[in-house]
Amino acid sequence: MDDRFDRRELLLHLGDMLEALNCLSIAGQPDMLVAQLAAQEESLQSFKVLRMVAPGMTVGAFGACVASAFFHWPKELLEAEPNRNALASTVQHDLFDGNPDGWKTYVADMQEKVKWFGTGLPEMKKRNADGPPLAAEMDTSPAEASVEEAPLAEWDEPDDKRGWPWPQPGSTS
């Protein structure tokens, strides 16, 4: 399967998320609501994701959620076979926990570029306003649950770089 264009789109999206986070940080108002700041600042209005997060999310919380949701993306996208569920489930779990409407909008937007993004994940439940965060109820994060441990025999095998992003022997790319 040739998924280099999907990987490219996901890396571009990661860059957009970091840019949005940087723009929010520059505003220097960590206790302000993301939606409120995005509505006020013209420089933030191009970031659609800021309109998808939970209405009560602060800039500080958004920063922590983005860091948690996307920190493993670069490594995962360099794997020969990236774990698609892990890529999407950490974003669902860390950035959209308790916000199924925002998640559905986010997935629809992402699937315009990466058709498989977010498919096959369980339905989200809306968080009760008085209840604890849904993520706190789980023992492990979706990324931890979806990672398969490599058998010890594979640890001693040579680390050949084959396939994307390393070209096949004899290829001109």
Automatic annotation (TrEMBL):
Residues 123-173 are annotated as: Disordered. This is Uncharacterized protein. It comes from Paraburkholderia hospita. The lineage of its organism: Bacteria, Pseudomonadati, Pseudomonadota, Betaproteobacteria, Burkholderiales.
